Amino acid sequence: MTTVVSTILTVEDERDVRIGIRLLLEDDGFEVSEAATYAEALDAMRRSPVDLVLVDVKLPDRNGFDLCRALRQQGHRLPIIMLTAQVDSHDVVAGLEAGADDYVTKPFVPKELTARIRAALRRMERVTDTATPPTELVFGDLVLRPGEGQVTRQGVPIDLTRIEFLLLVELAQHAGLLLTRDQLLERVWGYERMGDSRLVDAHVSRLRAKIEEQPGEPRYLLTVRGLGYRFVRPGPGAESPTDAP
Amino acid sequence: MKAPAGVRVRATLVVAVAVLTASASMALLTFGLTRTYLTGQRDQLAQRQAFLNARLLEEVLPATSTDQLPEVLASLTREGDSQVLLVLDGRSLGSSVGISLDDLPDDVTATVAGGDAARRRIELDDRPVELVGVPLLDGRGAYYEVIPLTELARTLQTMVLSLAASAVVGAVIGAALGATLARRVLRPLRVTSAVAGRISSGELDLRLPPTSDPDVAPLYESFNGMVDALATRIEREQRFAADVSHELRTPLTALVSSVTVLERASDQLPPRAQLAAEILNDQVEHLRSLVLDLLEMSRMESGVDTAHLEPVEVGPLVERLVRSRPHCRPKLHIDDLPGPVLLDPRRIERVIANLLDNADAYAGGAVAVTVTGCDQMMTVMVDDAGPGVAPGERQAIFERLHRGEAARRSTHRGSGLGLALACELLRLQGGSIEVGESPAGGARFVVKLPMRLASAASS
């Protein structure tokens, strides 16, 4: 196993917080680049590749959600972790909807921040892991190629972030089975005890928006009320929407 | 202390008593008048009858022999069961056995013997009777008639009963009327109270409906005005809390990260600086937990923090929380609950984590954690083997910033808000917390929560 130094971009407008985080992460063996604004962050992303982005919600020019959306629109699939002020504020849900993989509440416990960063980086490695067993999973017009990290619907590639892809593969590999939020947090995020079930819900809804024809009436990714989620192979009748009983 | 009677009870009682008083006095009046009239009627009748009979006797007696007397007496017109007594030349002759001159009061017999008629109501054999005496044949004899009043008494008694019954029925109808009236009058109060209850449970947009009743409109208007003012204030406080929260979190974040870096590099520092770094680290950590707990407390109080209920598998959740603390290995006893329970998972996690923290800080860690459920209640118990909580402190330890005996002895410095937060979080979910003695010798914290099953809620 080779040790590759991962680069983390920290986007935070408060100088002292930014430097504090940089020192902390450098201590833990990461390489850190900094950005104080939305514009600086986009600039930094263009200049050199990074492995993970840490984004504060409050930025002087645009907010962190906008940055998330912009990065996802530019096709960046890397993990994004939001720094939010409150656990139960709208920030958490808004950040996840904008495309963040996870969030950390300020003021964080340093150990927890690095644990989440490491978990996110490990997930990246898993996506490109060529040892993933099945080469192709076919569900109706949806085709998953875990080895290549690719999903197509009716032959058209769907752009998924790494974590969305991992979530989809996990669900698809257990097609027909119920997976609880806790199970998904453990298997997809790699969290045994620090997960928040809202992570799963927000990612499922993002995934539905990308793979379902009608995200409001999902055919593949079903909610098992009160328990979790189940991926199903759409039946032949479900192919035509007019074929209702 | 006994609670005073409510408006409805009082209105009911007042109307009932008023109706009862009115109908009772009407009944008394009716009874009095009727009795006077009936008695007078009866007396007159008796007197007239006696005089007629006496006149008849005066006419027939001179031509009647002693043998024929009983027959003559029997032929007299008499009222009902009345009895007659004829006294002639010192001899008495009754219409029935058992009545004699000795039974009659002396003053009546004397009056009649003196030549005057007399009338008197007396008791004969314990029965009320009307006695009429008329002198006969210029003082040679006397004629007495004894008329029983039993029938009249019975009539009057029946009347008393029916009047009393109608008074009682009136009072009952009055009470029902009073209750109905009071209920109608109190309707706006009931509506107000229901709406107030829903508003205080979080529906801040709710207002009382417009009303056309001019008596009720001012109440509704001022109530709605009060709620408007309150809602504005809550909104302002929420904004303030959010601002303060952000302002506090930013410097704390910078502090926490820098201090951690300093602490990690402390072996490169001179000994005096090492000690300073250690103190800095401890105090920043203390400050962090204090600020987080204070912010949570203030958010909860301003009502910003609303519950996010979702089905929670309580057993696995508790197990995960306990296992996440590598240093403590309490005995776990987890009953199978009937299914996922509707709860706010972050809040219940916080409560249990605070209890485990508390056991860590003051009692060397929890020794047993128990989850049970029965009926509509779910119970989580956290036992420790520490010094326990003295009976006098069992309420106070749930107060904010209370530093109990254990806290004063301990070197640990928590925020002093952990148990108060747990208490408040539980109260918001309809639960409760108390502390007692653990069989393990220390304290036992018992958390009780209503067990609403997710399956029941979704169907």
Summarize the structure.
The complex is a heterodimer of chains A (about 240) and B (about 450). Chain A is an alpha/beta fold.
Structural summary, described in words:
The complex is a heterodimer of chains A (245) and B (459). Chain A has 245 residues and is an alpha/beta fold. In chain A, 39% of the residues lie in helices and 20% in strands. Chain A has eight helices and twelve strands. In chain A, the strands form three sheets. Chain A has a five-stranded parallel beta sheet with strand order 2-1-3-4-5, with helices on both faces. In chain A, strands 6-7-8-9 form a four-stranded antiparallel beta sheet, covered by helices on one side. A three-stranded antiparallel beta sheet of chain A has the order 10-12-11. In chain A, helix 4 runs parallel beside helix 8 (197-211). Chain A starts with 6 loop residues before the first strand and ends in a 14-residue tail after the last strand. Chain B has 459 residues and is α+β, with helices and mostly antiparallel strands. Chain B is 54% helix and 17% strand. Chain B contains eleven helices and twelve strands. A five-stranded antiparallel beta sheet of chain B has the order 2-1-5-4-3, sandwiched between helices. Chain B has a five-stranded mixed beta sheet with strand order 7-9-10-12-11. Chain B is rod-shaped. The model of chain B has no long low-confidence stretch (mean pLDDT 83). The chains are: A alpha/beta (245), B alpha+beta (459). Chains A and B meet through helix 1 of A and helix 5, helix 6, helix 7 and helix 11 of B.
Rg calculated over all Cα atoms of chain B:
48 Å
Structural class of chain A: alpha/beta
Number of strands of chain B: 12
The general outline of chain B is rod-shaped
Helix content of chain B: 40-55%
Overall mean confidence score, pLDDT of chain A: 83
Largest beta sheet of chain B, briefly? 5 strands, antiparallel
Give the helix tally of chain A. 8
Taking the alpha carbons of the first and last residues of chain B, their distance comes to 44 Å
